[in-house]
Amino acid sequence: MNIHKAARPFVALAAVWLALLLALPPQGAMALETVPPGNRNASQPDIPAGAVSRTRATKGSFEGKYEKIRDLIARDKKLQKKIKAAAQRYGIAPIHIIGALIGEHTYNVDAFDNMQTYLVKAASYLGSDLTFQHDGEKVLDFVARPQFSQCQSISDSYDLWSCREDVWTKQFRGKSVDGVAWPNDRFGRVFFQPLYAGQTFGLGQLNPLTALQVNDMVVRVSGFRPLNAAKAPDVYKAIMDPDTTLHYMAAVIRTAIDAYAQIAGVDISGNPGITATLYNLGDVRQRAADLKRKGGMPQENYYGWLVNDKLAELEPLVQ
After folding, report:
1. What is the pLDDT of residue 177?
2. Cα(238)–Cα(178) distance, rounded to whole angstroms?
3. pLDDT tens digits along 22-50
4. Phi, psi of 181 (to 5 degrees)
5. Average pLDDT over residues 151-179
6. Nearest 5°: phi and psi at 23?
7. Termini Cα distance of the chain
8. Which of 117, 150, 196, 273 has its CA 20 to 30 A from that of 16?
9. Rounded to two decimals, what is the model's pTM?
10. Distance between CA 318 and CA 80 in Å, rounded?
11. What is the three-class DSSP state of 228?
């Protein structure tokens, strides 16, 4: 099979990941370098202008948004139990889910006042005619183009959608292909935002593409029905419903912890600020590969820095 030159870096990186995984000794036998607790930065890294403008637009403050999501978790005992249950399923400490919730609702959107609001919004997606598409072309038709041929043999959902995203970035983003000028924007934003300009949804502020990536793990661990990109309403309900979105959040965090252990030889499971940073940034396998190449310790961004800085207040919520 001929592989387009622009797609070869992804295939090469996938081969590196596979080689690293095959070379690993049995679980528990590999000595990992442990990331120590706390922040590496003495002061909070710069907060992006987008987060600042979103907060100003609502006449709010970061401190006020932080207190709102913290207090929501503190008073909702059912939510605390659900967080603990999801974390246990995926073998992570509950504080990692708390950290992601805190970061998202402090710097992304305000939390709703109660969980019932999320449930109502989740239910509203069912029965809708939403589709994942761009300019009338459905995403599954788009990824059936010959440019994506090297992705066809990939079975794992994370690797499959990562491959497709890589092809989009290298061969379509900001380019004219087959007489069509394609947007200079992220794959997830171009094809997976049929309703809103925003990119993420629900309690966990997940992107539909992220949910599709961890689909196989969630099906295997939680026993949920598989998500299908041809059924956008089901995907939106999964990431809007607190009963399910916490499992997708846990899977995203588990993927990050595993990637750093398996690729970079680093244990980040004891530093919620680092896992929160990766939840915010995504692309965890590439970041782990970059860390292995450069050496050193992963560092928290502004989002993860807050989580580590507030641990004394947050850890009691799930103890």
Report:
1. 95
2. 35
3. 444 444 446 899 999 999 999 999 999 98
4. -90, 115
5. 96
6. -85, -10
7. 53
8. 273
9. 0.85
10. 6
11. coil
Longest dimension (CA), the chain: 57
Q: Which two tokens stand for residue 52?
A: 């600042």
Exposed e or buried b per residue across 251-271, where buried means at least 16 C-beta atoms within 10 angstroms of its C-beta: bbbbbbbbbbbbbbbbbbbeb
**Distance between CA 259 and CA 120 in Å, rounded?**
35
Angle at 143 between CA 126 and CA 182, to 5 degrees: 95
Q: How would you write the chain as a 3-class SS string? A: CCCCHHHHHHHHHHHHHHHHHHHCCCCCCCCCEECCCCCCCCCCCCCCHHHHHHHHHCCCCHHHHHHHHHHHHHHCHHHHHHHHHHHHHCCCCHHHHHHHHHHHHHHCCCCCCCHHHHHHHHHHHCCCCCCCEECCEEHHHHCCCHHHHHHCCCCCHHHHHHHHHHHHHHHHCCCEECCEECCCCCHHHHHCCCCCCCCCECCCCECHHHHHHCHHHHHHHHCCCCCCCCCHHHHHHHHHCHHHHHHHHHHHHHHHHHHHHHHHCEECCCCHHHHHHHHHHCCHHHHHHHHHHHCCCCCCCHHHHHHHHCHHHHHHHHC
Pair of tokens at residue 119: 């449930």
Tell me the one-letter amino acid at 80.
Q
Element (H, E) at 129: none
Give the CB-side neighbour count of residue 88, counting CA atoms within 13 A.
8
pLDDT at 253 over 90: yes
> Helix (H, G, I), strand (E, B), or coil: what is residue 134?
strand
